[in-house]
Design goal:
Amino acid/polyamine transporter I, mainly alpha, about 0% strand, about 375 residues
C-alpha cells in the first residue's frame, strides 16, 4: 500500500517546505539569536548552503538504490541487523521530535490563546487531529500543504514587512555577532533544522525519481529564504538581549504591528496559520513514523500503527516538566546533534555501499 503512493512535484515541494519551515513559528529565531547574536541571518544562509552540499551526497545515495525504502537499502548495505538498528534510530528521532513538537505547540497555545485550558486537553486535541489526518495518507497531507503553504508564506511576509516601524539597522552590528567560531560551528549544527528532508531518502518511493533533485533543492531554497527573512526581521525589530528571551518571536512581531486604531492585534490571523502548519507537521510526522515502522516490520499497511505511535508520542510529550526545560532540551541539545543522524547515516552508508559494490551504480550492477 505504501509503494503505491506517489506525489507530484508541486505537492512534494509544498509538503517538504511546510514541514521544514514550520519551526519558524516557534523558538527558532530566538534560539539562533541566543547562539550567534545578531549574525543569525548569516548562520541561516551558511546552514542552507551546507544542507545543499549534504543533499548532493543524499542524491547519490538515492540514485544508487532507486525505488527502495531506507530499511531495505540499509539492510542490503550493512546486513539486516545493523540495518534495522539504523532504521530504528531514525524512527526514534522522529517519535521524539513529534512528541516534543506536539508539546511545544500546545504550550504555545496556552500562552497565546487558552491560558486556563489544561495542557493534557490541548495535547490530546492535537493528537486526535493528527491521527485522523494521518489515516488519510501522504497524498492528502501533501495536497493540504499545497493549498495552505502559499497563504501561510504570504502571511509570514506580511507580518515581516509590517514591522518596518520597529527596524533599526544598528542591531545588525557587529556583523559576526558572538564571533566567527560560533557562526561556523552553528552553521553546521543547525543543518538539523532541515531534518525533515530525510523523508526524501527514507521514502524515495513517494516521489518520481526524476523529480527528486528539483524537489530537494527547491525545498531547501524556499525554507532557507523563509528562515532568513524571519530571522533578519527579528534581528532588525528587537535587540539581541530581548529577542533571545522570546519563546515565539514571530508571534511577538505580529503583536507589535500597529497601523492605526482600525488595524491592530492581527496576531489572531497569525494564530490560524500557526495552527494549520502545526497540525500538518504533526500529521506528516506521525504518518512518516508509522510508514517507517511498517517498512521495518515488512507490514503491508501502516494504518494500524498510527494509533499506538500517537499514544506513545502523547506520553513522551509530558516528560519535560515545563516549557523552559522543553526549549532547552529540544533546541539546544537534541537539535544540535540531530544533523549527525539526518545526514551522517546516509553518508556513511553511501561510502560503505561504494566499497562493498552495492547498488545499481556498482561494478556488479546489483
Amino acid at each position: 500500500m505504501i509503494n503505491n503512493m506517489k506525489l507530484g512535484e508541486s505537492e512534494a515541494i509544498a509538503l517538504s517546505a511546510t514541514v521544514i519551515s514550520t519551526k519558524i513559528f516557534l523558538t527558532l529565531p530566538a534560539v539562533i539569536s541566543d547562539l550567534v547574536g545578531c549574525s543569525g541571518w548569516m548562520t541561516i544562509l551558511a546552514s542552507g548552503l551546507l544542507t545543499t552540499i549534504f543533499f548532493l551526497f543524499i542524491l547519490k545515495y538515492i540514485n544508487r538504490f532507486p525505488d527502495k525504502t531506507f530499511p531495505e537499502t540499509a539492510a542490503e548495505i550493512v546486513g539486516p541487523y545493523i540495518g534495522v538498528f539504523l532504521s530504528l534510530l531514525i524512527l526514534i528521532t522522529w517519535v521524539v521530535k513529534i512528541s516534543f513538537t506536539l508539546r511545544i505547540f500546545s504550550e504555545a497555545m496556552i500562552i497565546n490563546a487558552l491560558p486556563h485550558t489544561p495542557l493534557s486537553i490541548i495535547v490530546a486535541v492535537f493528537t486526535i487531529v493528527a491521527v485522523i489526518v494521518s489515516y488519510m495518507g501522504i497524498n492528502t497531507i501533501a495536497q493540504a500543504c499545497y493549498i495552505t503553504f502559499p497563504v501561510s508564506l504570504g502571511a509570514i511576509l506580511v507580518i515581516c514587512i509590517m514591522t518596518f516601524h520597529l527596524w533599526e539597522t544598528d542591531r545588525m552590528f557587529p556583523l559576526l555577532g558572538n564571533g566567527l567560531w560560533p557562526v561556523l560551528k552553528y552553521s553546521l549544527l543547525r543543518t538539523s533544522d532541515f531534518i525533515e528532508l530525510n523523508i526524501l531518502y527514507i521514502f524515495p518511493i513517494f516521489f518520481h525519481q526524476k523529480q527528486l533533485k528539483r524537489i530537494g533543492y527547491k525545498s531547501i531554497a524556499v525554507s532557507t529564504m523563509i528562515f532568513f527573512v524571519v530571522v533578519l526581521t527579528n534581528t532588525l525589530s528587537f535587540p539581541t538581549e530581548v529577542s533571545r528571551e522570546m519563546y515565539l518571536p514571530l508571534y511577538m512581531m505580529a503583536r507589535n504591528i500597529y497601523l492605526g486604531r482600525f488595524l491592530q492585534r492581527i496576531e489572531g490571523i497569525f494564530m490560524v496559520f500557526w495552527l494549520i502548519s502545526g497540525c500538518l507537521w504533526i500529521s506528516a510526522g506521525l504518518f512518516g513514523a508509522s510508514a517507517l515502522l511498517a517498512s521495518i516490520l515488512k507490514l503491508p499497511e501502516y494504518q494500524p500503527l498510527i494509533l499506538p505511535l500517537a499514544i506513545i508520542s502523547y506520553s513522551i510529550s509530558f516528560i519535560p516538566q515545563n516549557l523552559p526545560d522543553l526549549v532547552l532540551l529540544i533546541s539546544y541539545y537534541i537539535r544540535n546533534t540531530l544533523f549527525i543522524i539526518t545526514f551522517g547515516i546516509p553518508l556513511i552508508l553511501l561510502v560503505i555501499a561504494h566499497f562493498r559494490k552495492k547498488g545499481v551504480n556498482s561494478n556488479t550492477n546489483t
